[in-house]
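Changelog excerpt

This revision adds worked examples to the README so contributors can see how folded entries look when concatenated. The first example is reproduced verbatim below.
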Amino acid sequence: MADRSAPSCHLRLEWVYGYRGHQCRNNLYYTAAKEIVYFVAGVGVVYSPREHRQKFYLGHQDDIISLALHPERVLVATGQVGKEPYICVWDSYTVQTVSVLKDVHTHGIACLAFDLDGQRLVSVGLDSKNTVCVWDWRKGKLLSMAPGHTDRIFDISWDLYQPNKLVSCGVKHIKFWSLCGNSLTPKRGVFGKTGDLQTILCLACARDEVTYSGALNGDIYVWKGINLVRTIQGAHAAGIFSMNACEEGFATGGRDGCVRLWDLNFKPITVIDLRETDQGYKGLSVRSVCWRGDHILVGTQDSEIFEIVVHERNKPFLIMQGHCEGELWALAVHPTKPLAMTGSDDRSVRIWSLIDHALIARCNMEEPIRCAAVSTDGIHLALGMKDGSFTVLRVRDMTEVVHIKDRKEAIHELKYSPDGNFLAVGSNDSSVDIYGVVQRYKKVGECIGSLSFITHMDWSSDSKYLQTNDGNGKRLFYRMPGGKEVTNKEELKGIQWASWTCVSGLEVNGIWPKYSDINDINSVDANFIGQVMVTADDYGIVKLFRYPCLRKGAKFKKYLGHSAHVTNVRWSHDHQWVVSIGGADHSVFQWKFVPDRKLKDTLHIAPQESLVDSNSDESDSDQSDVPELDSEIEQETQITYRRQVYKEDLPQLKEQCKEKRKSAASKRRERAPGNSIRLHFVHGYRGYDCRSNLFYTQTGEIVYHVAAVGVVYNRQQNTQRFYLGHDDDILCLAIHPLKDYVATGQVGRDSSIHIWDTETIKPLSVLKGYHQYGVCAVDFSADGKRLASVGIDDNHTIVLWDWKKGEKLSAVRGSKDKIFVVKINPYMPDKLITVGIKHMKFWRRAGGGLIGRKGCIGALGRTDTMMCAVYGWTEEMAFSGTSTGDVCIWRDVFLIKTVKAHDGPVFSMHALEKGFVTGGKDGVVALWDDTFERCLKTYAIKRAALAPGSKGLLLEDNPSIRAISLGHGHILVGTKNGEILEVDKSGPITLLVQGHMEGEVWGLATHPHLPICATVSDDKTLRIWDLSPSHCMLAVRKLKKGGRCCCFSPDGKALAVGLNDGSFLIVNADTLEDLVSFQHRKDVISEIRFSPGAGKYLAVASCDNFVDIYNVMSSKRVGICKGASSYITHMDWDIRGKLLQVNTGAKEQLFFEAPRGKKQTIPSLEVEKIGWASWTSVLGSCCEGIWPIIGEVTDVTASCLTSDSKVLATGDDFGFVKLFRYPAKGKFGKFKRYVAHSTHVTNVRWTYDDSLLVTVGGADTSLMLWTYEMEGHRDSRQCDSEESDLDSEEDGGYDSDVTRENEINYTIKALSTNIRPMFGIKPHLQQKEPTLDERQGVVRPPVSRALPQPEKLQTNNVGKKKRPIEDLILELVFGYRGKDCRNNVHYLNDGADVIYHTASIGILYNVATGSQSFYQEHNDDILCLTVNQHPKFTNIVATGQETQQICQLQLLLFTCGMQ
């Protein structure tokens, strides 16, 4: 189906008519190149008046509402509205993004301002707190943020003469801010009696702490510091919207339509009243002024831009006009000339020249205009009005021909018939009226078939038929001119339509997404000749489709620029241009149409880069003709890494079980065991869903990962060391360029990336807080300072880190589909590429954001799914491997050529000094020259090539290759089957590490007298492993089905295996050949056990609730154990081989007699007395303590008891391996806990001599060996565990003081209820109770413990006139906070002073004079204090208070108090 693909032509924005004057201010400036920068809708415009040329910045995806110019006047910052608005800093020469600032504001960005040297940018949000943020904009880093004000802020400015000071103003306030450290503190301006408190609209800062501000009543308020010192009354007759400072002085513009110029001391120079000039009009209101030399730019409320030359100030030059208030819906194009006509709710109709890019005529009507049409001869212009009337004008001189009102509701659509005889008028009251043009617009017909308002109409070429669309999405046909509805399908078949502007109909089915509301496409226009059509929708997008477009969900190219809804769109008469108009943004966009043939010449022009995918061929629906996804890739994309419960949830879950904890804490619990285990060796490598996760380290060891363990493997000694800092599946691994550090990313609710040293196995940095659910790709930059990571959240967020500082540099949403690889450009650490499902993107860093461009495929094909990528020998060369086996070669963002490299997907690539190496699903490693011209050598991974020193056996020839790395003269290969191989350049292959393949591993058995174990997994293999130091796989056998359990016979010669289809086998334990097999069940065999001693019986438990008992010698079933109400989970024999203990999924503990299978009831005290041959049970009083507090959430899946019956090892659903003392009686026993498996540990077994514990992880496919260490043998190691779930309350608890302090709650008092209820009579009004002495008439001299009163207070003040108290000054504070603080008294100045705190005050006490000085910047209790000990920072003190801020205070001169 070719017609579903996107058209190959495209549109280029050529001109935008309009300027955003409404609801914005100060948004119009001269750049250094004397160009004019402003914005309209979602586009930043740079206009050159000399060349009459516009350049566009298209980095926003919603209305821009604020703009600031950098002091050097080249860079521009713009802020937009939206749910997650961002700020773009861009270059006005190149119109490319320099930096993106995001993730802080919500709703929108109301104001922006650069500081004097242009290093910092301040922004104000539109959120309820009007948040003020200060940015280091180059780095995209937030330096400080604070709530701005409870009401709107209209302007903010840096004080250009004092660093770190800002001023903001808005509704009834002005605030003076100081930036200290990372805290912004405001002080409100004091209006006093000098002026009325009122709304301040704009401001400018001058020398000596003077600030000028423009008020709502037209006065200018002059501030010194924070006080209002004078007002300049009547500067303007109404509100002053804009104030601009320049070298010569200040310019102000107001609602009165005047611009006034002032000198540097704010003495008036001149007034320019724009209303009185030629172009002026009543009601003109100035929103923006910019004064530069002898030119002044003025932007008005009604979307005009004037340029005034000072010496000809009464002749302003109008350089831009646009529609103003209300919505813009009417658009028509002239049938023979390059003219467009628009009409709007502002009641004006305007004619634009598409060649001169200028307004050539304007006429004001009585009513808002909603639609327009030009007659076929181009003489008449018909306008449909909002009040139901329509007017016809002569195009030549805009004089009225006729005005007719036949309807009461708005006219939505007008169309002249192709022969020029009729005008069809469609209105909101569901009818279409037909008027005869020649009969002076007499009504000749009426169409009344619709039940909803008319939205679109088209005439047939012969003018005999009319088709309409209405608000219900119905398409109807009428015979003209009478208006009779046509329902006969035959009659309609041959109709040729003169135009196509309808949104419903077979020909335009494809413009609708597969699932969509029928009203969100506002306009369509088809270009029959070019076989394309253009649409306009409610999301601000103009789209280009093929025409006709028959199937829903067709591909398109999309263009952004309009902010909200695009109301109408039309081709020009010669199809050279497309004109689109925006409803709320009042703007008219003119797009140049670039047909296919021209595209070939423009291939070298890079695609417009933007933060949102513009001109993408990818549309909302899936491509229909995409090659089938490879099965392996499909499987991988379907893996979900989401967990019901994450390890991060544990503390919360425990918190919810508080009651249980309290009851448990009161009981005496058994200690944790003295012995411990240590991870010794791991069999396994994660290859089935990871790639490029295998490297040589500096010292020639091999680093990779499996489960939650980072493994460093020494291939000479066959030993492993482990990084155990992760607590869930590791999904990716990257190595530092120096090959000494490694970064690993894991699964988690708030997933973390760990960077660790492969020598010391210690973490260097842990990065958290930006990835949800998991991290699937990481990469270091070539200098090793940066790290890129990709998350597995729905947007596959890409983050760039400075990993040493733990700081996020930039982030961006990557793609809806899975991303497999991220690579940082080795030559330019600000660039990176990502590849994934139908995804190849080139990113460059811009401040806090990343800007992406899709790979340009051109005529070479379509975006394939990419599986791997590397950079080449220059900064612009990149190579990617596809899912079809090709290698794509890219220069910059363009695909130059493709080379066939493998059969099936190319999963891994590695760049060498000279050349490349690739590996694919076909199991071949290929070496290439440095241009991918020649394949130099291939190595097929085959069993025949295995060298004698291998640590295992290859399961199959040509396994799928997932990772390749080179070093030390070898090629290191990781396969999907979990094998790590070393390929010698001469050909032989050594297998180093191997584990199970994808699928869960449940079956585990240890040999009764040899260091050997057997495992069986859902990957349909049975494997025998050597547990002695050679650590290799001894044998493997493929099974017809996966298996879940296995068991050695007591003599170790036979091995029983239970399979998932209900059958089981007994095989020879050495050769793994069948001895016998049975099938009596349909469901999974969940456990299988030989009876002890001679192994006479075999008990086989299945998931259909039965245990079958077989006689091994006679190979017959001799008994069935019935009575379990759920599937069987665990089974143990007693020593005599006469009794079976069974656990079920319903947590039942049952007993059956062998061999007949009769159910027995045994009291729990007796159970303990029975000698059991093994204990793998998880139920019963002996192991009550192994169930965690959160037992409802997680299951204990397995247990195993040592042969001396002292230590019970368990595995659970959280991936923990725990050791308990046995018997673990009483709830919530204490334990030692070890993390290495990621999700559930499915089985645990001790070896025959208890020297090793063997554990298998379910989904992580790994087999782990732990050495068992006796009590004395303990080095301090990282993996020895947290002791247990419960804290140390029962270990003697806390001292009473500590307990009390621990329970203090520092809630902000103002927010909680009043602490002391206020009632009663105020003290001075109370009736005094006479004391005993007074009653007895004894007079005592006053006894006071206070110091004698100072002289000046003893003078008699009677009779003096009291001065009113101006201010209170703190003189002395009694008290020191010791009740709940510590280490908060320090000497300063060699013991001359003491610093301490109480309440919210820092106190410096001079020991010699006894005087105090105070730090009073805190506004709540100080809780801690420390002094900087560094000689460079003497007398710096930090204090922390109860709310969220820390102040740093500096003690400067103690005589002047504190600063």
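The second example, added in the same revision:
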Amino acid sequence: MCKNTTMSKAPKKKDYSSSRVASSPAQTPNKESSSLVASASEGLGDLKKSRVPIWPEWNEAEVNAEKWDATKSKDAKGAKGSHAQLFEDPEGRVDLPVSLKVHSWKRPSDYLVNKVPVVVENECAFDLTTANEHLLCSELMRWIISEIYILWKACNSGISGSEDRAVSVETTPGTWRPWEHIYSLCKVVKGHQPLYNPYGKYVLKLYWMGAWRKVTIDDALPFDEENKLLLPSSTNQSELWPMLLAKALIKLANTDLIPGNRRELGEFTIIHTLTGWVPEIIPLNMRCVGAMWTFLRKAMPRFQLKKEDSATSPDMRNRTEPLSLNNKSPEKHKDSAKRKGKDIDQGRKSQTPVATSGQPNHNTENVMVCASYLPLKLLERKTSELGKMADSSEYLRQCGLSQLCSHPVLLTQTRVGPLVAQPVAAPVPRWKLIRPHRQHRPTDEPQAEPAVEKPQEFIEVASPFLNLKLKTLVTEIRSRKQICSSVLASFTEHNENERENITDSLQSEQADAVEPTEVTAEDKKKDERPPSDQTASETQSTSVDTPPPVCVSEKPALQETWVPLEHFTHCFQTLLVFHKPNAYPYHSQKSQYKSSVSSRLSATALSSPNSAAARQSQYPEEKGSYFLVVDSLQRSEILISFSALLHWGETLEEKKELQLRCGVLTVEPFSWKSLIYQLPILSTHTTACKAVTLKLQPGRHVLCFHMRAVLGFHVHLYSWTPFIFGDEEAVMPVLTKESVCFVEQAVCIASALGQVVRCFSSDTERQAASRALTNTHFPPNSPRAAAGEHMKLFGEATHKMFSKALDRALTSQELLAVQALTLQPCLTLQPSPAACSHTHSHTHTRTPTLEHREQPGTWSERSPTEAEERAAVTLQAGLRGYAARRMVRAARPGTKENLSAAKTLQEMWASVKTDLKKHAISLLGYMFSESPSCVDLYGCREDEQSRISFSEYSVTLPDTPNIWALIFREVFFVPKDTLLVAKVYSPVVSALHVINNDTGEEMPKVFHKVEPHIYKSNQKGYTFVAEAHTGDVPIGRWRMCLIGCRQPLPFPARETPVNSFCVKEFKDYYIPNEKYIICRFSVKVNVDVLGTVQFQTSASHVHLRMTVLDHEDALTSATGKGQVIIPVFTFSADPDSEESQEKEDSEETDTHTLTEPSSHTHTHKYVVQVEVLHRSWAISEAEAAFIQTLRHAERNEIRVGGDKPEEVTAPSSTDQSSNDGQKSNTPKSSRKTKEKEKDKEKDKEKEKPVAKPASRLEQALDTSKPHWTLRVVCEQAEAESVCVKRDMERQEQIKALKMAWESADPGRAVKALQSRLQFINKCVRGLTGDGPTDGADRRDSVFQQSPDFQDMNLFNAAQFAPMDYTPYIRRTRSQPLLKDEAIAERQRVERSERIQEFRLQRDMVLERRQQERAARRQLKRRQIQLYDAIQISLWEHRQRVLEAREEFRQRLLVEETQQREEEAAHEALRQMEQEKNQAQATARKSAGKKK
């Protein structure tokens, strides 16, 4: 029965594997990739010499084609004695636990001399405890043995099986056999028999990381110094399957990261590896006992007693009732040898499992529950932990377990009440009922209510190590155990008493109820009696210490005992709930691994997942995110299995150095329409594999799964509810549809509307149907203030639904029927504005609109008079009244109009009924779209928050690596106000900008992402601009997804997005100046151009501001750090009017040539200016000399006259059209004519470029120097219309002024240069101490230096350090002004006024500070006084309270004293009366005696 769940039939197995491959990213590697990496032999104590990738997935074809020997012609006998030809595991020797010391490794042929090794010999049963007592000191070995026993019992005999003995293979064909995981010299068939391989190669099929894996091992077995095998073995040592299976399991267990190195086993489970069942680890706590008991009652069978067996007891051969600390008289029972098998069958058949409510009965069949407890921590130092360990150890000892021998146990069933039925009370004779004895004595004393006894609750556990005496313990542990030897001996005696027969147990319970003292004395005598050897041997007959006298096949696999519920949480720390995956109809899984495990591994990387359905690929990171969508009308439970791969191939020393980083899985609510982080609803950590249950309420839920592991992870989801699990591409299309709750609500409304249509002519039925319809679309608990608007909206939605169903506009008769149905006469006269603007509407064509279109020409040119307006209002009122009366007649049952409207509605409803679900969704969807507040009236309001609509746009990235590029720029128009989120998917670093074209503002960002924003409908739309920095290998596509709530979404101005742009790029070195302006570039366009401007510096820490100026007026600006971008700016073209331009130039004055031009309304003069903010671009000393050279080069460009110095070579530009040509040096007579001539020369230079020497913008740029890059981007079609060049207007003005001076006075420039050099030479000679020379000599020296200006600069640089004098030069006006006495006096007066104003402000500030200081002192004094008053008042109130209390106390004392005195007086009187009465009685007695 259980075999089908673990190793199913061939067809089922094929289907399951196919579905798994479709959802799992793992793939089965080919024969070459799965081949052995190394097969060299290793000596004892050698480290691993080779590393291999993770184990490949199971492939039956590969196993069938496996080569089991070294060569095809090799003889098995020859291979048996030759160690050099034996197979060796390429992964090296298996690392055993630290508690097991390996001395040597041997092959089966080495230690089995007289026997022939076999893989399996006894197929009926096995014993893994008798021969493995020396291995029980290892926690890992105990878990392996225990879980194999548990799985054998669960699969072969079942938790509610008929017998505890081993199951015969002949009687139960569907059993699970542990040796079926081993393959050697056999094919992969059902019920295969592995054979002994002399070559030593074996293949095992084990479940790991979400898939069945092929694990290859050799048959080298470890031994200790005493020549004991260090792997589990059966009583028949020639059987190899326990050793081979344990060796493969230990290999998989070594991948588990054990925190703290205190345990040999983390969260790795053997049952999960052997079956693939999902392990859910639930920690136990005293606060969750009730919930745990409820779960166990549902998940396990319940023990029940049959009525016919109430007088006798079933066979309790392997079940013992533990001694409770609070119960002095425990239940006692004994084995009944006469009723072994039959009574157990009858007792277990009477058990009735209980299923979980709301789901099929799958808990008891598809869930197996185990419990585990932690080993004894001898190095624990916390007192609280030591106390818990002491209590746990005591409770475990009472159950027959030991904390030194921690292992998992199987939970088989639960029990409420006694184990043995209470005897039926004998009937009371009728004569005793005539005068029955009183049950209670009447008394006036208060009687305590009888305590309600809580029913006894027990859990049955099964373990292979029950009542086991450990013989192979450490000396320290043995000494600690000998201290408690007396207590353990007492416990053993109680166990002997508990094995009495059932009759003695019943008699002892009856004696305990009647005469408890006698029973206690008898028990004490039994406790004092020394245990005999015979009794002890009977008690330990089922123990593992001595071999059983019976056959191995009759030995029970697990022994059982009952544990009280109140002790269960003290004994065990965790519950292990194993869920069978085949029981869940819906499942999905995802895997993700690193491309390579570690540099220490082999050159072969991890086998990458490759599944088309799952769309998996290799990931360089260990993090992953997936999304889950659950949409259901009922509560959902999803089982999540999470496996993490934390380390691979490390040695024991390397494992100790590893940092503890568990695999983490978190589940949190997610919404694409919000950037707000929500707290996780589920989180789990694991070192191997762990499962958790996610419980969700009805409705639609969108959750995000975040997984993190060191080397890889695997997540698998199981559920009884349909769900979608995957990446965004798989999940987002599901959210565009309506939720199940929405569809259910819409269908209910449409069904109620159809019921009204069917009974439209019936008065009584229609009223009930109308009330039901109103309650359906307008719930009773809704606010009544919005009832009118909601009814109107529902009428419009109904009108819309009928129009869509008929696919045409409604006729007048159909419109009247709809009005009568919804009682809304103004559906067409006053429709909602949104309904009129709807593109698919056919019913909102109104008569006034037609009349307005066809009005006579005489009315179009004049306004109506007051009389005409009153007449129009009267006509409209009459029309509305007529329409209302007509609607009322059609809605009144029994009229002719009503019958006609009912017939029309029936015909219209027939069109709706053909696809009721579709039209119902359109009805409710229209209501939600027109009135968002209407969503709050229905239960599906939370589902609507997760509903999305999206549209995708993608472009190809440029092929050039390591550049900045504009990859996307489109204008989107928003037809309707909507919440919109722009999500970008890019393989390179990119940024998105969204600009409102009406206002020019950029949408706000959060963490460099455009935040969700409600986009208003505007005229020019919104421009989406995306920039990117391509990496080394720019491969892939850039994709943008616009996510909104509902349709319609924003649509682009062009159908196909354009990603090919023209980039005008300029580069140059950075030269600091006093205004901190980096560069100025002028932009001229012939047509209106939509451009993008980007600026980038070589230093990423520089704060920048880029501004677009028009006639020096700032139009837009942007700031940034390291780079700055203006995403969108429209450069407008000038009007083509050359004559007006020339006329305007002729009217300019001479002063206009030196000053900035005034602003013009019809012309544009765009300048892009970039400046440094906060002086953030500092220049180092090494770069100062280079920058000084660049400054001299700039001065040479504007030099006029004399010999032209040589050009300084430097930077380049990629746009040749932006370079300036050589200007003409022809002198002019006047400035106005000179400017006009200069403009003409510029126009000529544009048409015919002038050759000039190579400038700084034409040569390569040294990237090690501080430099910048300016890019102006436009579309390819507009590239010819854009001209970008450096703004040299100021330099040209200065140069033109010098040329004018030179033309007026030829040789003036040479004379000025000579004078300057003479002054410099004089200063140099004065500093060096040389005597003055004559002017001729100085002039000669100057002329010797004047031909080469560069040499002079070098000479000056050698004499004087470069210094910037601009901060010390007073700024001057645009025009020179002579300073006279009046100006000096005015400046002196202004200076004195400023000083006086500063002094007044300073005095005011000081006075204000003094007032504040005085106010603070006054406030402090008031607070102190208030505090003192409060203290005094408190003391007075305290004194009054104390006085009142003392007065009350004194009064009580007086009253008590008086009461005592009165009682003493009464007592004295009573005694006197008693004495008097006694005296009288004595006198009477004496008188009687005398008589």
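Reviewer comment on example two: The first helix runs from residue 3 to 6. Residues 638 and 1003 are 40 Å apart (CA to CA).
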